[in-house]
TrEMBL record, chain A:
This is Anti-sigma-E factor RseA. It holds the Pfam family RseA_C. Interacts 1:1 with ECF RNA polymerase sigma-E (RpoE); this inhibits the interaction of sigma-E with the RNA polymerase catalytic core and leads to a decreased expression of sigma-E-regulated genes. Interacts with RseB. It comes from the Bacteria. Residues 146-193 form the Anti sigma-E protein RseA C-terminal domain. It is a single-pass membrane protein. It comes from Pseudidiomarina donghaiensis. It is found in: Cell inner membrane; Cell membrane. Residues 199-208 have a biased composition (Polar residues). Belongs to the RseA family.
From TrEMBL, chain B:
Residues 36-205 form the MucB/RseB N-terminal domain. CDD domains: RseB. This is Negative regulator of sigma E activity. The keyword Signal applies. GO terms for molecular function: antisigma factor binding. It comes from Pseudidiomarina donghaiensis. GO terms for biological process: regulation of polysaccharide biosynthetic process. GO terms for cellular component: outer membrane-bounded periplasmic space. Transmembrane segments: none annotated. Keywords: Periplasm, Signal.
Amino acid sequence: MSDRFKEQASALLDNHFRDSDVDAEGPFNADLSALLDDQHARAAWSRYALVGHILRGDAQTNQQLDISVAVSAQIQQQAPLTSATSNTNVVQPSASQGGAQARAASRWLKPAGSVAIAASVALVAVLSIQQPVLDDTQPAVEAQVTPAIVTNPFGGRNPVSYNTVIDQQAPTEAELAQQRQLLQTYMIDHQRQIQLSMQANEQVTDPNVETVKEPPKQND
Amino acid sequence: MTKYVAAIALWFAAVASFAVPAQTDERAEIAANLGQQWFNRMADALRHLDFEATLVQAQGQRVQPLVWFHGSYDHDTDLELLIYLNGADMRVLRIGEQSYYYSAGGAHAYTLQSNVTFGLIPPAFYNSFSNISQHYQVIASGGMRVTGRNAQYLRLISRDNHRYHYDLWVDRETGMLLKMQMMTPQGEVLEQLQLTSFSVTNELPEPLIDLGQFQQPPRMYGNDDSTPVKFALQPDWLPDGFKQRIASHREVHDTRLPTDYYLFSDGLTEISVYITESQLQNLPSLALQGPDSMVNLRVNGFAVTVVGKVPAETLHMIAERTALKSTMESEE
């Protein structure tokens, strides 16, 4: 019995199920059903299939060999769910929804659309503005003691491309990296000096630079 | 309300002064006058307008979206907030004459004593055109629709070709800067700024209200600028209008490279000149042109590095024309 099933499973795999069948008078479907219902036969088919894959060299490691169990388990799990909730959860396409979409689309054509975008961006800004202020856990005293020279000014991180004509012998990778870094350093230093000079300029024009203004508090 | 009256008055003033010289002077003159008025309106808007805007800043392949808020508090102190939306969280908050620069984590935060915000538009745009009128001219020519608004087109060009040019589009209703292009004298666009949304709030924008508790980062101090320059070589030529702001001997940021440093400015653009002993600096002769250009040359046994927002050709001329002090003194 078991041997016959194995034989049939092998035949099924090779697509010769019907012609290898010895009991030709038995109905084809019944035989196939019997074969598919038999757990051992299915396991045998999986093994044969795997052997075939390995022989052909297209087997993958970690491949889920038999997904039929997982699939049937999933179907059993979902079957009651869908039947119970099909009336409530499944979205029914309706004319009213199409109308809403059309209205939404037409809204984009009006100037109001851009205001909405701006508003959403502004909202993000409002949500995030508090962060650097509050999250800054550095103690203020220490921050003042630390020399501010280590700061990297804005705008100083422009990527420096190296599309240059070099009229020396080709430098090594390390030398190139070093040179690129030095270029960056000059860029950063330049940005820093501009900012410092903006500050120096203020000091020249405005003698009251030492007065640190309190941040304004708006009370509505 | 008063702002509207002022804006309307300004508008009429602009129209009136347009009408009067129109009968006598040449068209170019009118365009220049009109350009200056528009430029000053823009400077006024950047100082006094309450607005919120979203914008995109593009430099070559890099695109950076930002949000920009501005408002004035008590008609006296103006507040400005810039938030960079891509990459590291960077923001700039300016309250009157203090500007605070924060970046992600607060590690590189610093404070500057400055009444303009650095990094977005040239600080000169916040001030009257008369400050830069000697070396630049601004010409009003035509209009265009920008950011969904009726905009006036301005060309800010240098009187020589040693500097970058700017194309500006300002809102005809409010004077606000809506779009900016920085380009080489040959017309290659190097940097762009484009507002994608803009609205006047007529009151302090919400993010600027109640800034009550925030930490002021440490003030950025420069190196001691009192050490005089040491080397025999020094810059001898710069385009007209560039005035020396700094001349000192120090080490370049984060390096131990002893350098004579010079900073020059024409009111809109800055140029840095670094002079180092040749054997200590291993950069080849090179020229990079971009939003910030850079040229490195060897002159008389010194490495001369020049950096600035000007064409590389200009920087090359500056580097080339550095001269030994002794010869300069003998000329005097």
